[in-house]
Amino acid sequence: MAGTEASINGFHDYPKNSFQSWGNYFQALMEIPHRLLDRIMSRSLDQTKLVEVKAESQHEMKKTLTWWDLIWFGMGAVIGSGIFVLTGLETQSHAGPAVVLSYVIPGICALISVFCYTEFAVEIPVASGSFAYLRVELGDFVAFIAADNIIIEYVIGGAALASSWTSYFATLCNHQHDDFRIVVHSLPINYQSLDPVAVVVIFIICILAVISTKASSRFNYVTSIVHLIVIILIIIAGLTKANPKMLHGHGHGYGDTAIFEK
């Protein structure tokens, strides 16, 4: 319990002058196993997250988002540009009509996740969401692993979606999807393609998010509404050309078989 309290209140059990001399440095190295065990076993307290950490920041965060913004943040996360990238390819090459089931399964998982995050927000209503909740309920180590997973998710997902913008831009300009990418032959295979358009897109979105949370939210729900309109138009156009005879053999790989009539 003493170690937990020390971890909660800060790092005052750690030597503050670890790099002041070689003796202090080696002493700090010798204490690493104890510190690591302490961090793995320690858990934060509700009081710490709700009161002490908030007081240490010395700034009250201003509420700028409403329930409307949160709804569209969720919508934007689900119907981003990625929905137009792989859905058609997977439907044609692998899933066929069973692609509907491929959406039902993650939809159920997303519903369960919503219930989890609702529990987080009700029990510990502070910034950082799941990380703060896990720190209190399961300990710092589990929260650390969860935070790493979240960061990896955003890095990989953001990079993939930004890269898809290059394909859209190339198509809009009547070019092949790789025409705006730079190939560096000195780099290893599969890592030779540099994507300046994706970098610019990420940079612009980052600047927008830093300048104003409310402005980025407005941009998000405007683009999400456009996505919904496009999806509805695709569904209507697809139903007018649908061939009911092709609704069989779920998941057996359709290859070049046409699901829709020409």
Automatic annotation (TrEMBL):
It is a multi-pass membrane protein. GO terms for cellular component: plasma membrane. The chain crosses the membrane at residues 70-89, 95-117, 194-213, 219-239. Its main location: membrane. It is found in: Membrane. Keywords: Membrane, Transmembrane, Transmembrane helix. GO terms for molecular function: L-glutamate transmembrane transporter activity; L-lysine transmembrane transporter activity. Belongs to the amino acid-polyamine-organocation (APC) superfamily. Cationic amino acid transporter (CAT) (TC 2.A.3.3) family. PANTHER family: CATIONIC AMINO ACID TRANSPORTER 1, INNER MEMBRANE TRANSPORTER YGJI-RELATED. This is Cationic amino acid transporter. It comes from Quercus lobata.
